[in-house]
Amino acid sequence: MSSMIYDLNGIPVQIEYRRIKNINLYIRPPAGEVLVTAPKGTPSGRIKKFVDSKEEWIRLHQEKMRAQAGKGEAGQPTKGQIEKMKKQVLQYAKKWEPVMGVHASGWTFRWMKTRWGSCTPRTGKIRLNTKLIFCPEECLEYVLVHELCHLIEPSHNQRFQNYMTKFLPDWKIRRKRLRESGV
């Protein structure tokens, strides 16, 4: 496999020749390095023309990637951020479990696409979305109390909402803030 570096108006682009059929463009996290792979034998002029046509796209995606660099690779939280979140959750659990008269049997932290948290009332296990790291801390507390309420009332009925209001009177404001967080 041979390679070369092409200067795209100040952006170094690594070009690698491989046993493939098409020219491919990659922006590598976390720093946004640019890699172009091309079929062996492709004229360098054709590759450079392809890269030049993608300059705006490359710059846009490099900016996005650099903006997310504080969030870890490709927007994912770093291990340090997850550890900080775990400590916060355990502090909130210590505060809320005695007040609510419940106890979670275990906490799991993972990146979820569609939920902020989930609870299995039968086992007492609660899962929290690591995206909460990028939200205001009051939103983390809201989701934690929400999931702990499911240990009392599994559904989202009026009884559940009454518990939320009892334990966290401003829960609707926090929920709105969470939805508006843009995460």
From TrEMBL:
Q: InterPro entries, per this entry?
A: UTP_pyrophosphatase-like, YgjP-like_metallopeptidase
Q: Could you name the domain of life of the organism this protein comes from? A: Bacteria
What is this protein's record name? Zinc metalloprotease
Ranges in a coiled coil: none
Is Transmembrane helix among this UniProt entry's keywords? no
Source organism lineage?
Answer: Bacteria, Bacillati, Bacillota, Clostridia, Lachnospirales
Species source reads Claveliimonas bilis
One GO MF term attached to the UniProt entry: metallopeptidase activity
Asked whether the UniProt record includes Protease among its keywords, one would answer: yes
Domain annotation YgjP-like metallopeptidase: ranges: 24-70, 83-180
Instruction: State the UniProt keywords alphabetically.
Output: Hydrolase, Metalloprotease, Protease
